[in-house]
């Protein structure tokens, strides 16, 4: 299993506890991986031989030196793809596809435009852009990844500061440098399918906490497999 953006290892520790024997944790922040490794060393020392660490941001051509083609059973992308732009998501999904064994699975969870922190007009405008995107894909079959709607490199200009103070919101998003890709069920479906995956399930899931809770569609979850 490869856990991309594993952070402090919540999922990793649980997987090792439940018997995972070959778990690779990746993160762009080496200090997150240090914390993860320390937690495993302290809480589950006998499981250390079952853990590998890969530091760096996906997509990354060098990762192919450490992760052989068709070697993985599963890849986890929990709350990480929305920090990439659609060109990077396309590259990342192509890499992941190549690393999975046939029948291997990917599980992904991404933020959407339906977070209460965004201005309603931004949400409405993106809904319109996604409609146009769906029509274009229907007529043209494919679209240049950079034209897939939803990405911003300055997320703070789309925040509704009447919901939550500016400093609180910017502090929560500052580690991504203001970059945020607001996914939509349609754009997520397109990105996974064009990378070659078969989607087994794709659903909106809620975030029920302040300041994000809006309408039950705050995140989109994708369960897909390599044929
Ligand atoms: C919101 S946290 C999610 C943590 C964990 N997956 C979870 O769901 O609890 C995002 C993590 O992804 C990492 N990250 C951000 N961009 C990344 C990239 N391009 N490649 C790998 N990790 C990345 C961050 O350093 C952070 O630890």
TrEMBL record:
Sequence ranges assigned to domain Methyltransferase in this UniProt record: 1-104
Domain of life: Eukaryota
InterPro entries to which the protein is assigned, alphabetical: Methyltransf_25, SAM-dependent_MTases_sf
Pfam families: Methyltransf_25 (PF13649)
Gene3D superfamilies on file: Vaccinia Virus protein VP39
Protein's UniProt name: Methyltransferase domain-containing protein
């Amino acid at each position: 299993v490869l856990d991309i953006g594993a952070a402090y290892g919540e999922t990793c520790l649980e997987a090792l506890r439940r018997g995972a024997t070959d778990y690779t944790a990746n993160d762009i922040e080496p200090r997150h991986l240090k914390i993860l490794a320390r937690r495993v060393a302290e809480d589950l020392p006998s499981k250390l031989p079952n853990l590998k660490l890969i530091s760096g941001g996906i997509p990354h051509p060098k990762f192919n030196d450490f992760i052989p083609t068709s070697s993985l059973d599963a890849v986890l992308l929990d709350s990480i793809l929305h920090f990439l732009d659609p060109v990077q998501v396309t590259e990342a999904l192509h890499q992941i596809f190549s690393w999975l064994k046939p029948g291997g699975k990917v599980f992904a969870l991404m933020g959407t435009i339906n977070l209460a922190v965004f201005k309603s007009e931004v949400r409405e405008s993106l809904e319109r852009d996604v409609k146009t995107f769906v029509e274009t894909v229907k007529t043209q079959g494919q679209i240049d990844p950079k034209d897939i709607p939803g990405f911003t490199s300055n997320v703070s200009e789309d925040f509704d500061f009447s919901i939550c103070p500016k400093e609180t919101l910017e502090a929560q998003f500052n580690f991504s440098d203001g970059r945020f890709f607001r996914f939509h069920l349609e754009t997520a479906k397109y990105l996974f399918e064009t990378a070659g995956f078969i989607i087994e399930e794709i659903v909106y899931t809620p975030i029920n906490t302040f300041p994000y809770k809006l309408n039950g569609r705050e995140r989109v979850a994708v369960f897909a497999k390599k044929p």
